[in-house]
Amino acid sequence: MVTLGHYLIVSGLLFTIGFAGVLLRRNIIIIFMSLELMLNAANLSLVAFSRFRLDAAGMPNYNAQVFVFFIITVAAAEVAVGLAIIVALYRARQTTHVEDVSSLKF
Amino acid sequence: MPSFLFWLFAFVMLGFGAAVVINRNPIASALSLVLCFMGLSALFMSLDAFFIGIIQVLVYAGAVMVLFLFIIMLLDLRAETRRKTNVVAVVGGSAVALAFFLQVYFVVGQLSAAKEPFPPLGPSKMDDVRNVGLLLFSNYTLPFQIIGVLVLVATIGVIVLSKRELR
Prior knowledge:
The structure holds 2 protein chains of 2 kinds. Helix content of chain A is 74%, strand content 0%. Chain A is mostly helical. Chain B is 74% helix and 0% strand. Chain B contains 6 helices and no strands. In chain B, helix 1 packs antiparallel against helix 2 and helix 2 runs antiparallel to helix 3 (50-75). Chain B starts with a helix and ends in a 5-residue tail after the last helix. Classes of the chains: A mainly alpha, B mainly alpha.
C-alpha cells in the first residue's frame, strides 16, 4: 500500500540528491541541473499533499497544483537567465568550473 | 495506482537523478535528467495530477532540457578532467546532505498522516485542466499576470546578456 509517507520520502531523497549535487560537483552546468532536481522534489511533495487532502466534493486540492504550475514557470525563466549568465561567463573566462571563478571569494 | 508502478517510477527517477550528479560527462547528465523528469511526471500522474504531469514533460523534458543541451553544445564542453578533489569538502558535503535526509526521514516518520493511504476520489468527473484553469483565472489572476511580466523580463534579460559586448 502506497501511503503519503512514501511520496514524502521519495521527494526528500530527490531533494537530497540535488543538494548533494550542488555541494559536491564543481561544474556550473551540473550544479544548475541539481538545482532543477531540488525544485522538482518540492513539486512532488506539493502534489502529494494536494492528492491527500481532498475537498468536500472528493476532488484534490487544486491550489497546490496552481502553485506547482507557478513554480514550473518561474523555474523555466530562471533556467533561461541562468544559462545566459553561464554563456556570458564562458565568454569572459573560458571556464565553467566554479573554482576558477573566485574573484568574490573572501 | 498499483504499488509496483510507484516503486518502478520512483527507482527510475531516483536512479537517473543520482546519475545526473555522478556522471562526468555533461551530456550524459543532461540526458539522465530527461529520464529523471519522465519518472517524476509518471509519479505526478499516479497522484491524479495529469495536467502537472503533462506540463512537466512539455516544459522540462521538452524546453528546458533542449536549452541545456544547446548550451552544452555551444560551449563545446567535454567530459571534465579529474582534478585534485578536496577531501574535506567532499566528506563535509556528503555529511550535510545525509543529515538533511535523516532529518526529513524522522520528521515524516513522526507525522501520523504519513502512514495513512490516499483517500479515494469523489464521484465527480476529474477534469484537471478545467479545474486548474478556473482557479488560475479566478483566485490567482494577479499572480498569473505577474508571472507573465516575469517571463517577459526574463526574455529581455536573456537577449541583453547574450549581446556581444555587455555595457
